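Audit log entry. Action: structure prediction of a protein-small molecule complex. Ligand: coenzyme A. The ligand was supplied as SMILES and no pocket hint was given, so placement is left entirely to the predictor. Protonation state taken as written. Sequence taken verbatim from the request; no trimming, no tag removal. Recorded inputs:
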Amino acid sequence: MKSLQDIKSVSVRVLTPSDAKAYLFVRLSALREQPPAFGSLPEDEPNLCETAVRLAQSDDRCFFGAFQNEQLVGIIRVSRYDAPNEKHRAYLAGFYVLPSFRCQGCGRALIHEALSWATHTPGIRRVNLTVVTQQEAAIRLYQSFGFRIYGTEPETFSRDGQFYDEHLMTLPLNSDNDRNAQKHDDMVG
Ligand SMILES: CC(C)(COP(=O)(O)OP(=O)(O)OC[C@H]1O[C@@H](n2cnc3c(N)ncnc32)[C@H](O)[C@@H]1OP(=O)(O)O)[C@@H](O)C(=O)NCCC(=O)NCCS
């Protein structure tokens, strides 16, 4: 468990096009991590201009960044599904904290803000995500917010001759979620 001092040093805010360069640095670190946490490839990542466009404000998608001493150290994206008959669902993706800033509360603070965005966006009632089965820290963190595993896809992607499975996780946005948000607010005082 982190001290209150550690948790207070983390700040989380919505990212904008002016954060594109810092975002791209963290995002590429995420895609190069071993063992892989993501199926996307660094060479397919949008360039700086395209990244800035992606970070522009949208009603259906939001990028959050965790900062320590004004340095972007962690990222998460929450997006609403596109189809009119799926807009009641959102998904979390691109969740990552730079290795030297882990275990200091950045991840928890990012999920808290992403779930708060989903909770306050009218019509969203469920949040989904997928996570590589080896990413135990992430799975434990998701479970602490109430996400449960409802399936496992075998061999979702391959890298360097190895195959990686992914868990599918889901969280209905209900009073349990509100309780978790309250727990976080109590921790950060
Ligand atoms: C998952 C990740 C974002 C967590 O970031 P973080 O800033 O270290 O998370 P926090 O410090 O907020 O930790 C929150 C909780 O995660 C769990 N956790 C974090 N690091 C852990 C570790 N090394 N081992 C076990 N559990 C861990 C703990 O339950 C911790 O709870 P606590 O606050 O009661 O101590 C980070 O480990 C990471 O970037 N991992 C690689 C990418 C990844 O797996 N992304 C998910 C893709 S779906």
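Audit: result stored. The radius of gyration is 16 Å. The domain at 4-188 is CATH 3.40.630.30 (Aminopeptidase).
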